[in-house]
């Protein structure tokens, strides 16, 4: 890029909006919007795990907001990669210390503005979009199973939107045996560049054309973010939805006294505790604006009832760094609770452990704590028993319902080398087959074309017995056609062999050609087998990641 572009003094204005959505009980997304850094992290791993993982990742990246190392782009790129890896180590360490957090993880998509360049770090299926000169470009590649299927040509992008495994990620940070190294990219920054980072709760339901239109139509950053999140929820998103909007602007006078400045904003799970981030930056940070009119639609009102949240939205909060909090008296000495403070009859207050009244109070507190611990233990055991009973009842009912449903289905498959009709589904649960044979035909499997044999091996499913019988007739007709074609080919071959007898070289060529065709067919079958194995292996990895 020309030096004039890289050397321009650009400033970054950014904001973020995050909403828990209409289904989730808590927000596992975390976002950061500063003057030099923007980031989105989509947590996963249960009610507490996703919150914790995305918060750890944001805190690990936050220092880049002011640690630009005098505009050294390559150093910041290494710093971003190191920070993402540090977040991975912290998540794994915490998951090992706290069993309830096992399996937690998070995506990370972050962009830093350094000396006229964008530095992008990405892992997972959150996305970064860049709007430049009115044209939207997706700057990240999803590390997901469906993206792998798209890349290998097995499904189209339209099919991926409704694929049952669209939420399976193959690379994330967390307590998984997965490569945690992020993708790092560097690109020259231009004035008026606009970035949009989002979690899959937004880009999973909105088309890229809709995102481009919204980014172009709304110049105000907060209004743009509000519109994107609101549209995602109205489009039926069942996940947390978060958007980060950032604009690059060119300062007319880089040495001016009143340079552009904004307070960094934190959204989602990480906003629950701003003080650690304020201490990392050593400057104030604030909570991001809430989604406006969050309870205006029926879906949002229903979500508010499910989550037991009040209709009123909390006001934005600003957290000061520790030095300011100490000056304001906001950092009180922690109370360990080990020695109670009591007031004696003469009005004197004491916490002397040698005082008989203090000793008596300590003994009373310990007895109270033991009683509470025993009561809590009995209550937890009772709750555990009730949960097990409910789970067993639910599992039994679910298994019975699944079996009843399976018996409404039919499929055609292989029964000792012949075509047969089965009632049920072609699978088994814990060794129990969910199907049984209801009609066996005299159609030999080996007499059918290879394509039919492959389909019958997996089972051809139908919704009724009549449909299955009709398809058996189709197979019977296909067998007849196949045999007729085979006989015709054989007759032609015999005629050719008769001719070749009078010319030895021609007969030799005929044998060689037939052998070549057989070899080519075997190669095609082998390739198809390899493809199925690859898809199975990839699906297993994706499931583990999730």
Account of the protein in words:
The protein is α+β, with helices and mostly antiparallel strands. It is built from 15 helices and 21 strands. The chain has helices at about 5, 45-60, 75-95, 145-150, 155-160, 200-205, 210-215, 220-235, 275-280, 300-305, 320-325, 355-405, 450-460, 465-500, 505-545, and strands at about 10-20, 30-35, 35-45, 105, 110-115, 115-125, 125-130, 135-140, 175, 185-190, 195-200, 240-250, 265-270, 285, 320, 340-345, 350, 410-415, 420-430, 430-445, 460. The strands form 4 sheets. Strands 2, 3, 4, 5, 6, 9, 10, 13, 14 and 15 form a 10-stranded mixed sheet that branches. The chain has a 5-stranded antiparallel sheet with strand order 1-12-11-7-8. Strand 19 (about 420-430) and strand 20 form a beta hairpin. Helix 2 packs antiparallel against helix 3 and helix 14 packs antiparallel against helix 15. It is flat, with a radius of gyration of 33 Å. The two termini are about 40 Å apart. The relative contact order is 0.10.
